Amino acid sequence: MVRRRCYTKLEKKVPVKTLLDESQLNNGVEKLAQSINETYGDRPLTIVGVLTGSVVLMADLIRKLKMPLRVGVVQTSSYQGTERGALTINSDMMLDITDRDVLLIDDIFDTGHTLQEVRDLMQRLGPTSLKSAVLLCKTGCQKVDWMPEFVAFDIPDEFVVGYGLDYNGEYRNLPFLACLEPEDLGEA
Ligand code: IMP
Ligand code: MG
Questions:
Q1: Contact 146, 118 (CB under 8 A)
Q2: CA angle 38, 44, 50 (to 5 degrees)
Q3: In this predicted model, what pLDDT tens digit does every residue of 82-119 receive, in sequence order?
Q4: Is 57 exposed, middle or buried (0-12, 13-18, 19+ CB in 10 A)?
Q5: How remote is the CA of residue 109 from the centroid of ligand 1, in Å?
Q6: Which of 94, 4, 5 is nearest to 50 (CA)?
Q7: Nearest protein CA to atom 20 of ligand 1, as residue
Q8: Domain boundaries, the chain
Q9: Options 1.20.120.450, 3.30.565.10, 1.10.1740.10, 3.40.50.2020; CATH of 40-158
Q10: What count of other Cβ atoms lies within 10 Å of the Cβ of residue 146?
């Protein structure tokens, strides 16, 4: 079972394919925060996190931001296992963003369709500015003609879990980023 294999690795502290360890993640988020602080200075900022994958990044990132900050969320969901399905967006819990500087936060920019749809939805609400920040960008996978303004890490085209990212709802709590191994996927 995936669950048992995952926890076995955790107990032994020998994750087989760690892509980014805790210290690398922390450094990347620190640099991301620096760029965002430099870009916005003292201007008030409204953060909109894309649930559920951005929760860990959000918690770490917002505590490194220095401007007056409001935090809202939207929820999207598109993956079943490692396959993309139809995208749904729930924006019931989003803040008012009209005439605000807005920064979208997500875990990963893969094809880009998710953030593009959220961005289009938010653009219609009339923000003063709208930018995006992601922890990860999968190299060469984009199917849209724009890129997030802030990217902490470019990673290879592999299915990754941990630090908020899931496989069928699990692994979000791993403090490091790992590639899910083919045998883990096969046993799911
Ligand atoms: P996109 O729409 O293809 O850019 O995919 C973005 C969303 O798919 C992200 O917000 C993630 O929730 C999910 N996703 C994409 N790649 C991965 C991955 O490697 N692991 C876990 N989730 C992923
Ligand atoms: Mg997501």
A1: no
A2: 85
A3: 666 778 888 877 889 999 999 999 999 999 999 999 99
A4: buried
A5: 7
A6: 94
A7: 160
A8: 40-158
A9: 3.40.50.2020
A10: 12
